[in-house]
Amino acid sequence: RFPLTRPDLCKKWEAAVKRKNFKPTKYSSICSEHFTPDCFKRECNNKLLKENAVPTIFCYTEPSEKSEEFAEQPEDPLPPPPPPPPPPPPPPPPAATPVLPTSPSTPSFHLSQIDARFVDPSIGLLMPPLQTPSNLAVFCDHNYTVEDTVHQRKRIQQLEEQVEKLRKKLKTAQQRCRRQERQIEKLREIVQFQKEKDILAGKGYVILPNDYFEVVEVPA
């Protein structure tokens, strides 16, 4: 993801992407293939991106711009490259020009009608179109800059609403628990007071007046 919390580093990432009128959001991210190997570090068998790493590998990047290490020229001159191998002999002419199978819904066409630039003469298969400047303007190696779809945004909004409802329920449950704890504490105090009262009642005594009893003489 783009380092939005670090504006200086985020501006470097935006400059490396080279897209007009592009502002990264919290959902924007860049594939790890756009970083050189020296931009990563390993921690606990995990491959992590360094704090100051900047993406440098893109479809418009020259090989000399991929890494500063490779951009530096070595002090010792390199030996001259070996001569290129001789070109392979031309393939024999085909016996017959193949025709693609046709169907009622598919118009038939001949291979001779296809531009020769897009056909490999050695194997007779179609090749992808050449990467011209006009194609590079439309071509993107990864579709990570496309904004979120309406469905994704609605899903995110629904999840945020669910989180807010659960947070309110949690707060209500915590308040209910605190009230129950206060009630339990009051009941404990009442029980303790009643126990002390019963103990004092068992040890008490009554003071009677002196003339409460009469002396009765029993005849012999």
From TrEMBL:
The record's listing under SUPFAM superfamilies reads: Glucocorticoid receptor-like (DNA-binding domain)
Keywords noted in UniProt? Cell cycle, Coiled coil, DNA-binding, Metal-binding, Nucleus, Transcription, Transcription regulation, Zinc, Zinc-finger
Ranges in coiled-coil conformation = 149-197
Instruction: Name the residue ranges with Pro residues bias.
Output: 76-96
Q: Main subcellular localization, coarse class? A: nucleus
Region described as Disordered: 65-107
GO process annotations (BP)? endothelial cell proliferation; regulation of transcription by RNA polymerase II
A Gene Ontology molecular function term for this protein is: RNA polymerase II cis-regulatory region sequence-specific DNA binding
Q: Which Pfam families match?
A: THAP
Domain THAP-type, which positions? 1-58
Which InterPro entries does the UniProt record give? THAP1/10, THAP_Znf
GO CC annotation terms, alphabetical: nucleoplasm
Composition skew (Low complexity), residue ranges: 97-107
Q: Where in the cell is it found?
A: Nucleus, Nucleoplasm
The family assignment reads: Belongs to the THAP1 family.
State what this protein does: DNA-binding transcription regulator that regulates endothelial cell proliferation and G1/S cell-cycle progression. Specifically binds the 5'-[AT]NTNN[GT]GGCA[AGT]-3' core DNA sequence and acts by modulating expression of pRB-E2F cell-cycle target genes.
In its UniProt entry, what is this protein called?
A: THAP domain-containing protein 1
- The organism encoding this protein is Eudromia elegans (Elegant crested-tinamou)
The gene from which this protein is expressed is Thap1
